[in-house]
Amino acid sequence: MSSANIDPRRKMALATGEVRTKISMTLERSLGLFGVIVICLSSMLGTGLFVLPAFVGEIAGNGIWLAYLLAASVVLPAALSKSELASAMPSSGGSYVYLERTFGRLFGTISGLGLWASAMLKSAVALIGFSAYMYVITTYFSINIQLTVISLSALVLITILNILGMKKIKSFQYPILGVTLALLMLVCIIQLFDPSTDLSRPFSDTLSTLKNEPLKIGEATAFVFVAYAGVTKVAAIGGEVKNPGRNLPVGIMLSLLISTALYVFVTFMIGATIPGEWWYGSDGKIREDSIYIFVEAVAGPTVGLIIAIMAILTIISMALAGILAASRFIFAMGKDHLLPQNLAEVHPKYETPFWPIVITSVAMGICILFLPVKDVAKLASGFKIMIFVFINACVMVLRSSSQEHDWYLPEYRSHFYPWIQWWGIIGGIYLLVIMGDKAVIGGGSAIILGLILYYGYGKSHDDKRKTPFQSFSEKMFGPVKIEEKRRRAAFHAADVGEKNKLNLQEFKIAVRALDFMLTSKDLEEIFHTIDLDKSGFIDENEFLEEIEKIAEEE
């Protein structure tokens, strides 16, 4: 039925339905540059600053600050690459979107599922990770609260905030992050000028470790790498960022700079303030309340109590940002039909992906109750490093195939290309080697589950488009085949009568189409040499063999 014969009211209804469908799959752009920075920092500073330092201390002593600095140098390439990718594809889904558009639906399914699991597990770990700080509070007030109840209550709170939307999230995160960092910086600066502070201790201890056990610093660097994973997590909500071509790249790079400065400065000050192996408790076990140990030693138990409370709120804020990012991976996969499409619909009132948020939260609750989350999350960390390696590869592939895929038009282009990307790939692979079996198990699990999901559901919705990676592979690894196709195409284009042979004039046209610098006389001599039976024609094989000889001579 032609459109002219459709009833006007039916045409209006169809158009209205299309508009509603588009609106139902669109998120409001309400996040500015400051909000991007807050989301990034909130995604990192929870466990990265309040929990990890003691574990790193056990590995590298007071070389903690150097481990954070080296880890940042490996994260920098991914931050630059992701800034470029985000400015070209500012949509919800972040790394999943970049990998799916570059490598195809199968790789997109594997990466999307792995990214969702990684972000979800990290958030679950965060809600369990404040146990040491909760112990400080319960001990101070002589009360007894079951940790699981607190963790699940926090999960319900951050789920509601995620459903209510970005404005509610910002109103929760901004004051928590601001007060926590202000208090911590004040303590550090005051202690910096205290006569008891030994600023040489972190340097001397680090030099000793580098001299005697240099691999310990490498191991510590691999361990703290995950502390920076959140620096690019905001790209997952690119569809909710205002002016994403500017705010995403600037926000990501500023967040990396701020977080690196915080990690290095705070851990350096801890080492300069507290002598000995401060990361061990009286029972010989590692203490997970690193910042409380520092603040309590400097400012007393009351200020330590305040920082413990703020630590809990900051870690909850990290889990909140984790659900925010994880749910967008499911949302983006729903939009691409790799998951049921109703997962790509947003709540009509709050304009948030309701079902992806609920699914992520339920999965977190199950993990908190039944799984050894910390052990499983370590496996997810290996997958995260793999993703960072592929993010750097994405930029190299997309730039190399931009002529064939002219939709790739980033507003921001990574500095130091391609050397910075190569450093990110090599550094990431080195960290994976250090991680050993955990990285292999984590990546392997994501691949197996992704294959099951793709072949069980997503493949039936695959559009079979030619990906930038295929174009890149043909250019890099199949130049002989590509050139052969080009020569065959020139032969058949010149074969006017489709007789599968060329006369002299057609031969000249075909050769000139291949850009060989030969005169008309040269071409006549070559043609008559090939035409052994003097029929006045040459076939395709004769043409290809002679063109190969001409190419070798040139």
Short note summarizing the structure:
The protein has helices at residues 8-24, 33-50, 52-60, 64-88, 95-103, 105-129, 131-141, 147-164, 166-192, 200-212, 214-224, 244-273, 290-299, 301-335, 354-370, 373-400, 419-435, 437-456, 468-477, 479-494, 504-513, 520-530, 540-553, and strands at 501-502, 538-539. It is mostly helical and 554 residues long. It folds into two domains: 36-461, Amino acid/polyamine transporter I, CATH 1.20.1740.10; 478-553, EF-hand (Recoverin, domain 1), CATH 1.10.238.
Architecture overview:
By secondary structure, this protein is mainly α. It has 2 domains: 36-461, Amino acid/polyamine transporter I, CATH 1.20.1740; 478-553, EF-hand (Recoverin, domain 1), CATH 1.10.238. 72% of the residues lie in helices and 1% in strands. It has 23 helices and 2 strands. It has helices spanning 8-24, 33-50, 52-60, 64-88, 95-103, 105-129, 131-141, 147-164, 166-192, 200-212, 214-224, 244-273, 290-299, 301-335, 354-370, 373-400, 419-435, 437-456, 468-477, 479-494, 504-513, 520-530, 540-553, and strands spanning 501-502, 538-539. A two-stranded antiparallel ribbon has the order 1-2. Helix 8 (147-164) crosses helix 9. The longest helix is centred in the middle third of the chain and has 35 residues, at 301-335. Mean pLDDT is 82; it is low at 1-6 and 8-25.
